[in-house]
């Protein structure tokens, strides 16, 4: 009996050792990367937009970098992001491959004008040619949109839809579903448009590319969006593409198609469905929602139905159609009950995002340096109300707001911190811009690191947050100085006299 027990333990141990771990290496040279920190991220979930950092290195003086990761638990094709500062490039490849890439020079003028720059990545050689095929597909798809789709959309959609087109033409999640060129062109009938869609679907991939699952899905889900625009029913698309248990949340086209179908899951017509869905939703119980969809079986596949719940709850919260407590409660139930690891992780990520950088959320600690090169940590702010202003010297508007921040620090009476954090790529540019002036603000340099942008939800510069003495966000959104944040600070100081003067903050 003892012998059998130890044999079983040995077998389990050997099975653990034999779990497959895949390795990826991406290397290349970019002159603009010289001596910069370069990060490799892998997209995990395009619903919650979660990424995982899998490698990081410092490029040499010539801009050569080598990103390696040997602990990936899948060999599937994935979307990777190569990042340095505010520059980002997309790469498509297998998690078990070795690739050499090329990156075009990045214009300094472009870098000055914009916070985030996307640079094209070209595959020089590698374990497979998926990236080249994906880039070729996207170019053909863009040509199709410009040549045919926008004409059809302009003819079919008018009035409020045209306004919606103008509002959503730069949408993050669905940038290719709305016209960007509003010039009148020759009309195209729906039947002809459908034929064009079918012809594109039949010819866009060559025989070798058609064997690659990632490209097949890219084509099929993109074309399903076009077909729905042309009148194909959502139920038909669900039956064709969302009927099985497969939910590749790491595939951007799958998620975009799912969002187009499921975003209005609880708010769509007919009236009977809407009333029943709203009643089930307001109950706050996942069981009631399941009973509703047993009555209206529009999504037979349980994993895809759970995906639909996640997408719809996310979008309703962003539109202020449900309270955050209901959003969190239903997603937590979903995470607790689902057997899908992907859905569970997605639901938990959405809950976390709903509170990240919001009122009462805890500010995350990080390290920066002052003008004397002394390191500081964000936890030093504890004990005082703190206004934190993020800027970059290359951003003219941010520099104007920096001066307004300094003026505010000098004019408001009260015991509080004003901290200005520079996110320039190079420390010397920060020192040059701040040299020769005595600052009331605490002047710090953090650099343009992606992690700082993420933990403080910095999508553009300038950016500001107001933090309570116990390290929590005062509001979801903090105004800039010229928008009147000074009045908000004075109001808070008057309302919380017992929390003033307890800090340990020290000037430079």
């Amino acid at each position: 009996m003892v012998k059998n027990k130890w044999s079983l333990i040995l077998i389990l141990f050997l099975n653990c050792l034999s779990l497959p771990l895949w390795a990826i290496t991406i290397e290349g040279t970019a002159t603009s990367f010289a001596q910069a920190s370069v990060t490799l991220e892998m997209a995990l979930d395009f619903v919650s937009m979660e990424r995982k950092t899998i490698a990081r290195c410092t490029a040499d003086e010539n801009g050569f970098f080598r990103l390696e990761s040997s602990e990936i638990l899948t060999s599937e094709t994935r979307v990777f992001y190569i990042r340095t500062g505010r520059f980002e490039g997309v790469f498509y490849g297998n998690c078990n491959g070795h690739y050499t890439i090329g990156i075009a020079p990045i214009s300094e003028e472009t870098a000055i004008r914009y916070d985030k720059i996307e640079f094209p990545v070209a595959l020089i050689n590698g374990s497979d040619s998926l990236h080249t095929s994906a880039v070729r597909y996207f170019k053909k798809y863009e040509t199709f949109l410009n040549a045919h789709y926008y004409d059809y959309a302009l003819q079919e959609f008018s009035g409020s839809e045209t306004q919606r087109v103008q509002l959503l033409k730069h949408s993050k999640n669905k940038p290719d579903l709305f016209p960007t060129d509003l010039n009148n062109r020759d009309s195209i009938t729906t039947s002809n448009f459908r034929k064009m869609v079918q012809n594109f679907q039949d010819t866009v991939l060559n025989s070798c590319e058609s064997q690659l699952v990632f490209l097949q899905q890219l084509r099929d889900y993109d074309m399903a969006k076009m077909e729905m625009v042309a009148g194909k029913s959502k139920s038909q698309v669900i039956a064709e593409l969302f009927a099985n248990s497969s939910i590749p949340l790491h595939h951007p086209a799958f998620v975009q198609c799912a969002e187009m179908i499921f975003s209005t899951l609880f708010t769509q017509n007919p009236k009977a469905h809407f009333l029943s869905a709203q009643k089930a939703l307001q109950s706050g119980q996942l069981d009631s929602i399941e009973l509703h969809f047993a009555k209206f079986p529009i999504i037979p596949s349980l994993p895809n139905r759970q995906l639909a719940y996640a997408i719809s709850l996310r979008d309703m919260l962003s539109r202020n159609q449900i309270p955050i407590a209901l959003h969190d409660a239903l997603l937590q139930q979903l995470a607790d009950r689902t057997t899908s690891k992907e859905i569970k992780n997605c639901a938990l990520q959405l809950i976390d995002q709903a509170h990240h950088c919001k009122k009462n959320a805890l500010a995350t600690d990080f390290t920066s340096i002052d003008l004397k090169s002394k390191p500081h940590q964000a936890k030093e702010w504890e004990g005082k109300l703190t206004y934190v202003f993020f800027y970059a010297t290359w951003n003219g508007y941010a520099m104007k707001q920096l001066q307004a921040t300094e003026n505010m620090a000098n004019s408001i009476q009260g015991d509080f911190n004003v901290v200005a954090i520079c996110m320039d790529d190079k420390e010397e540019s920060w020192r040059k811009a701040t040299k020769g002036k005595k600052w009331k603000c605490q002047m710090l340099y953090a650099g343009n690191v992606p992690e700082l942008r993420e933990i403080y939800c910095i999508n553009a510069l300038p950016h500001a947050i107001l933090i309570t003495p116990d390290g929590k966000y005062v509001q979801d959104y903090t105004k800039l100085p010229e928008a009147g944040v000074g009045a908000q600070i004075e109001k808070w100081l008057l309302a919380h006299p017992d929390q003033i003067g307890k800090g340990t903050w020290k000037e430079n």
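Residues 273 and 295 are 9 Å apart (CA to CA). The mean pLDDT is 83.
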